[in-house]
Each structure stands twice: as C-alpha cells, then as structure tokens.
UniProtKB/TrEMBL annotation:
Residues 5-199 form the N-(5'phosphoribosyl) anthranilate isomerase (PRAI) domain. Gene3D superfamilies: Aldolase class I. Signal peptide: none annotated. Pathway: Amino-acid biosynthesis; L-tryptophan biosynthesis; L-tryptophan from chorismate: step 3/5. It catalyses: N-(5-phospho-beta-D-ribosyl)anthranilate = 1-(2-carboxyphenylamino)-1-deoxy-D-ribulose 5-phosphate. This is N-(5'-phosphoribosyl)anthranilate isomerase. One of its GO terms (molecular function) is phosphoribosylanthranilate isomerase activity. The gene is trpF.
C-alpha cells in the first residue's frame, strides 16, 4: 500500500479531516517564505488536534541548526524534511529520522544523491522550479527516476486526484506527498479534493 503524506497544513479543521480521511503523515512547513508557513505556536495548536498514529513531518529549507532545534524542542516532530541545500552532515545531526528532498530535472543524478544521503529514510522527489523549494503544483518527468534507487521514494510535485493513480503506476513509490493539489487556496485544504486524492491512492491496484 502506497503511503500518503499531506503537506502544508495550517488549520485545525484540515488536520482533523486529513487524519480522518486516512493520511499516514502530515507535513508542517517551518519556512517563513512559504505561504504555508506555521509558527511554533501554530504548530502546537495543530498537533493538539491530531489523533494518534499519524506521523508528523517538519519541513525546513536551509534553516540554521539552532532554528531546527528550537522547533524540535517545542513541537513533537517524528521526521525532519530538508528541502534546501543541506549537507548530509547537517541533516543527520538532530537525532531524528530525516527525508531529503531533491528537485528533479534532467542532469540531476539521483543515484548519486541516494549515495550521498544514504542514511536518509527516503528521498522526496519534487519538481525543479527555479527560485522555489516546493509547493509549486508543477510535476516533472517521472522517467527521470531510476528503478534501482537504493532508498525509498516519496513522490511529490504536481500530484492531484486526477494524476496520482498514473503516478503510482509509473513510479511505484513508497509514498506520495501532496500539498497544492488538494487546496482551495494556499495553505487551505479542500476536503473534497483530499478525500478524492486519498481514495485514488487506496484503491489503485498494482
């Protein structure tokens, strides 16, 4: 069964609906330039509404180690997600499992990335869009993903209810990650789109 992460949550109602709909993980964005950014206080309120057995992923983009630790100390994160140019040494220093996001385009050697971040839980593969770090709604050519990657793949980038089944069939990822594809507006999830997305993932037969 392909796992599902819904990222960029900013409202308690969305957290509750996403969890009730069957998502395996939720993502909170601690990147101030993102329209989906949440403060530590907001994150604490959101997680107070989260039921058990849903993993919490904290997303950072080129943050300082101090900033990551400040969030870690006050927000119960299960996994860290690094979406910038962080080194493997940076990512592994926090004593938490981590995901390394790679923005995919022609010429990016994903096998080399997997070797460099060998202790990551997975590679999160997103679309390369100049000047941004995810949440763009853009997809990429899934044929660029090697079939022999030694790390689990979390597929991101432009996924929505209309294409996620095709994406899973093509890539066979460990998990899919959605943000803008299930939104009514940036940071505001659309309950019908969330339900449709999760339903598509759970009913695909590989």
């Amino acid at each position: 069964m392909t796992r599902i992460k819904v990222c960029g949550l900013t409202r308690v109602a969305d957290i509750q609906f996403v969890a009730a709909s069957g998502a395996d993980a939720i993502g909170l964005v601690f990147y101030e330039k993102s329209p989906r950014y949440v403060t530590i206080a907001q994150a604490q309120c959101l997680l107070a509404a989260l039921p058990p057995f849903v993993s919490v992923v904290g997303l950072f983009v080129n943050a300082s180690a101090e900033a990551v630790r400040a969030v870690q100390q006050q927000v119960a994160l299960d996994v860290l997600q690094f979406h910038g140019e962080e080194s493997p040494e940076f990512c592994r220093q926090f004593g938490r499992p981590y995901l390394k996001a790679i923005r995919v385009k022609a010429g990016v050697d994903l096998l080399q990335c997997a070797a460099r971040y060998a202790d990551a839980q997975a590679l999160l593969l997103d679309a390369y869009v100049e000047g941004t770090h995810g949440g763009t709604g853009e997809s990429f050519d899934w044929a660029l993903i090697p079939h022999n990657l030694p790390l689990p793949v979390i597929l991101s980038g432009g996924l929505h209810p209309g294409n996620v089944a095709a994406a899973i069939s093509a890539v066979r990822p460990y998990a899919v990650d959605v943000s803008s594809g299930v939104e009514a507006a940036k940071g505001i999830k659309d309950a019908a789109k969330v339900a449709a997305f999760i339903n598509e993932v759970k009913h695909i037969e590989l």
